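From the shared-data thread, chain only:
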Amino acid sequence: MTPANLQEYLNKLVKNQLHISTMIWGAPSIGTSFIPFFEKVEKTRDLCLQGVCVYLTDGYGDFPRDKPNLPVLWVVVPGGLDTDKFPFGEVVKIY
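Structure, as tokens:
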């Protein structure tokens, strides 16, 4: 996925009035834990609204044991984890 393709995809999400509720920043390649993010999403999401999680990452970190109840799009930066290593969701790499 090129940056232009990613921008187009994100524009479609915004046009459909999906809410962005959480943004977490961490330094690359330090082994981020994805668990707190997905725990927060599960606790705070409105069950009446459709949603999607878009996570920009290098992919190196701890994944939750259970798949979340929302669609997940992992957007992986150059040099990131191989796409087949993500336990759930759709994965696209930025080149």
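DSSP finds two helices and five strands in the chain.
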